[in-house]
Specification:
The protein is α/β, with parallel strands linked by helices. The protein is built from twelve helices and 21 strands. The longest helix is centred in the last third of the chain and has 23 residues, at 332-354. The structure holds P-hydroxybenzoic acid.
Length: 396
Amino acid sequence: MAERTVVTTQVAILGAGPAGLMLSHLLAKSGIASTVVEIRSREEISETVRAGILEHGTVNMLVDSGVSDRVLRDGDRHDGIELRLKGESHRIDFKELVGESVWLYPQTDVFRDLAARREADGGDIRYSVTDTRLHDIEGKPKVWFTGADGVDYELRADFIAGADGSRSQCRLQIPEAHRKWYFHKYPFAWFGILAEAPRSSDELIYANSENGFALISQRTPTVQRMYFQCDPDENVAEWNDDRIWETFRSRVNGNGFTLKEGPVIDKMVLKFRSFVHTPMRHGNLFLAGDAAHTVPPTGAKGLNLAIHDVKMLFEGLDSYYSRGSTELLDSYSSRALDRVWKAQQFSYWMTSMLHTPAYADGFSRARQLGELNSVVSSRHGQAYLAEAYTGWPGAA
Ligand code: PHB
């Protein structure tokens, strides 16, 4: 077999999504070398439409660590959301309840900012690689891959960070006897669209209705992002614009509110699942972001959790390289999982409170309205939602 070209680094990072690039950026600022390998092309990542809400801690990390302050200029600060039930709007005022806000700033922009920063700083990011294989994760780890240049490489590192997304190869390297997977499936999905239309509302609207859930979000003054609850097996080809708008109207219009409509320029079905891989470390392999956990999109927690993992993993690696201490690396998994399970609970709760399964009986529907009412009619209920949505206090 042909020789492999050896590349040596300190931390090998699999995945150049926001988690992988943010880790590489933080490490570089501390003088720690990393090489990032990614099977997708840069264009493919930057063109994938993903969610758009950043917790204040995520925004602070982007700005304070010097990635970019574009989020503060081009993003929109939202001080609350609207919950709509029985056709009536109830505002959850984050700022007033917990003193915090979130930012509407799409994940694709977070990726573009990080990729541009890493490039400007001379980071070693290898897109479009193939045939990645991990070796010796319990000892001195190596990653084999074929570069976009066709050359076979052996990347040698002290540690591997598996930030390779929900279809992670990294987590499959952990022997079954050393891992436990937690799964939850939901009987619905989201039909997501991008539409050329003006904003219908200044804030996001989470609407529960007899006809199912809908979420009115935004992208730009002229392009809006919206979702409605659908069957997981829904076929987008069967939905023309009229049928889509009719569905939105039946879920959000009423009591003086009318959605602003326009041509649908993109449509997709997003499947829901909750997933956690434990522990988030095996030997010298550390998992971060979607590689270790997935949440349904209702609470907009996915990207924020990934960034939080990375902050903790960075602190562990930094204290190892600067002081020789393994303490924070050893506690990484349990510290990260504390927040992961809080976010799992929040995302599950928001999802089950707002969506109505097709088979819901009279009791379940009335109980659900009781639950929603106990949130919107109580300051404590509202504050629980506001604190979780904007990001729990503490790191990131
Ligand atoms: C989005 O804008 O894509 C978005 C916003 C809030 C969510 C999920 C998705 O809860």
